[in-house]
Design a protein that fits this description.
Herpes Virus-1, 7 helices, 8 strands, zinc-finger, Znf_RING_CS, zinc ion binding, Tripartite motif-containing protein 2/3
Length: about 220
């Protein structure tokens, strides 16, 4: 049986967009309207806005120079609209838009329903599992609601603690938003930890320098 080695390349999306999806004349990102990518006969690509501006300045001429390679290009009778779109750039824009699209978590029991998260009860569910009226006692009795295990307490403890919250106003948000909030909190805490580590490193470095200087002074005195 033959085998094939597949190499995976990791690409930074922002760097990729800056290098391949940005007009080389105005350095603006391509889009589907006034910054639509236009393909020139020399194979370079510029946005529609820059092309319109260049052709406006060449009203007395039948040609213009590519702003990138300076090749002389004939101006078609239809003006900027006659230049073909850069299909590869447009396909890359569509691919990038798909890549950046938010992933919406769906319920495993009701695949068409978006997952919700109750911050009061610490529960994940969907509108079909829960219905329009959100109540704590339903959480405890309904196995379709999934308790979120935070790693510090088991699921049973969480369910028991949620039953004591009866009568509270429940703050329900989409699970996607809850994930983003958790990510932001984790990044913030990571930033704080990094700052503390940097301060500790500076303190240790300063203390080592002080000890080194004191040692050098003692050695000189002993001589």
């Amino acid at each position: 049986m033959s085998s094939r080695l597949v190499e995976t390349v990791m690409i930074n999306v922002d760097d990729f967009a800056d290098n391949f999806l940005t007009c080389g004349t105005c350095f603006s990102g391509y889009n589907s309207s006034e910054r639509a990518a236009k393909l020139l006969p020399c194979s370079h690509t510029i946005c529609r806005s820059c092309l319109d501006r260049i052709l406006t300045n060449e009203t007395q001429s039948e040609t213009f120079r590519c702003p990138i390679c300076r090749e002389n290009i004939a101006i078609p009778s239809g003006g900027a609209a006659s230049f073909p779109p850069a299909f590869i750039v447009n396909q890359l824009l569509d691919l990038l838009a798909t890549h950046r699209r938010d992933v919406v978590p769906k319920c495993c029991i009701h695949p068409s329903q978006e997952l919700l998260f109750c911050e009061t009860c610490d529960m994940v569910f969907c509108s079909e599992c829960r219905g329009r009226n959100h109540a704590v006692q339903n959480h405890v009795n309904d196995s379709s609601c999934l308790p979120v295990n935070n790693g510090n307490q088991d699921i049973t403890t969480q369910v028991e603690s949620s039953s004591s919250n009866t009568g509270l106003n429940h703050n329900v948000i989409t699970f996607n938003v809850a994930l983003k909030r958790c990510s932001e909190i984790m990044l913030y805490k990571m930033h704080l930890c990094t700052q503390e580590l940097n301060c500790a490193q500076e303190a240790v470095t300063s203390e080592l320098e002080r000890l080194t200087n004191n040692t050098s002074s003692c050695v000189e005195v002993s001589r």
